Amino acid sequence: MPIQYYFGIGGLIAGGLxxxxxxxxxxxxxxxxxxxxxxxxxxxxxxxxxxxxxxxKQSDYKRREAFARETxxxxxxxxxxxxxxxxxxDAIDKKAEMMQKREKTLETQEKNVQDKDTDLKAxxxxxxxxxxxxxxxxxxxxxLTKEDATKILLEKLEKExxxxxxxxxxxxxxxxxxxADVEAKKVITMAIQRCAVEYTAENVxxxxxxxxxxxxxxxxxREGRNIRAFEKATGVDVIVDDTxxxxxxxxxxxxRREMAKRSMEKLILDGRIHPARIEELVEQxxxxxxxxxQQVGKQVCYEMDIHNLHPKLxxxxxxxxxxxxxxxNALQHSIEVAQLCAMIASEMHYNxxxxxxxxxxxxxxxAVDQEMEGPHPDISAELLKxxxxxxxVVDAGKNHHGDANPLFAYTVITMxxxxxxxxxxxxxxxxxxKYIKRLERLESIATSFPAxxxxxxxxxxxxxxxxxxxxxxxxxxxTVLARDIANEIEKELNYPGEIKITLIRETRIVEYAR
Length: 514
Description:
Layout: H1 3-142, H2 146-194, E1 207-209, H3 214-220, H4 225-234, E2 237-239, E3 246-250, H5 254-270, H6 275-304, H7 311-319, E4 324-325, E5 328-329, H8 330-347, H9 352-361, H10 376-386, H11 391-399, H12 409-423, H13 432-447, E6 452-458, E7 463-468, H14 475-492, E8 499-504, E9 508-513
Parallel strand pairs: 7-8
Antiparallel strand pairs: 1-3, 2-3, 4-5, 6-7, 8-9
Helix pairs in contact: 2-8, 4-6, 5-6, 6-7, 8-9, 8-12, 9-11, 9-12, 10-11, 11-12
């Protein structure tokens, strides 16, 4: 064979050996890389496992912490609920104790009445026997018949009884008048002392402060489109004048005026004043006002312990916070009258709950007196009757100004509480100029009568003392003159409460203008 053949076989063998050697080396290298990758993967898996365990522990810790907070909140709620229950139990125990005392008092009174009834029956039997004996004695002495003797005796007794009864009636009338005056003063004084309220009621303002004078032009808008859109959306008038840093919102509806005031303040803070934004903010404010009114009504009912009140009456109560009378807030006035009614009723042993309800709802008509025709007492009575209130509450709403004869004692209590709340010092605001003019007018009315020498208004215009010429008017004429002055004051002046006219001559005559 040629030598090339052997060289070829040797080359093949050498190539195979080289390939084998190279494959062995590569296999060894790959095995090391694989082991390194496996080790690296194992290290990463351990790390991932540790991180997962840490994350699980953190999550579990957070869940435990959240659960602990929730548990604590629940415990606090339960403690508050427990405290409220304890207070209610104390109140119920006190009421039960009072009821037991009243039952004992009633039992004692009932026993006394029974004893007096037994004693009265015994005395009546003795009187009947005595009369029978007198009849027999008269019949035997005078020789008269029973009918004649009875007639003479009855005539004699009738004359004596008429004389004695007249004197007795006069005596007890005087005692009753004196006692009633003292007791009434005592009850009213106690009620006033127990009722502690602010001296000046909050008033509803209708002005809005501006950050700069440039804001007036933005509120008016191009050709007045902004101010027209605002007035149309709110139903009030916006007055922009030369007064620096302020605009005035005018409207008869106090709720609308308050809604407009809040909407204007929001627009000024927002800065984007255009018709679309105005409508959006007005609707938002309207919803806030309605929610606020409802919440205020519910809060007042809760504080006054008034239950089962119609939802519409609750809303009207809330509206009263935006109603004023002579500067006195109508809602604050109603709350004050309710408190006074409850105190007076407790002193007179009437139902405190009914009295408080009468006082709180007596002026409910003022919440809608701009929307309904008629004086507010008639509106109040109509609303209270419509929404299912009792006859006592309806009568208090209708007659608390004394326009008609009250049907229930609660109406009289409401009248007294209403007068106290309206006439107490500081309850109603009055400007100095109007105050001085009212005093001057009061004095001029009194001095306009020929027999009057001078007149002096005192006690902030709640009393006027009139000095008359004794030569021009006698004692009887003084009474007539005081009544004439009172009538003239009632005709000429508008004032809260009443004015006392004290006319001084040789005697002092007192009359009231109500």
